[in-house]
Amino acid sequence: MRLRDFWLLVDEVFDPRYGRTLVADQVLSVLGDRTAAQALDDGVEPRHVWHALCDAMDIPDARRWGKDRYRQAPPRP
Prior knowledge:
By secondary structure, this protein is mainly alpha-helical. A hairpin with a 5-residue loop joins strand 1 and strand 2.
């Protein structure tokens, strides 16, 4: 998963305003008590961050991949 894809999914799955706030403010224990933004800045792969964010927000697998039903899901870490 590319960083561009991460942000596209944030906007599609969470809505641009809420998603950007969530990435900046939601501390995720699985990411070492960092926000998604901090983890990305520290070099954590976007797919790891995406799965951690979706898991924390209880997003079901069917909704994790946005509007494109043909988008290939990144493998879990």
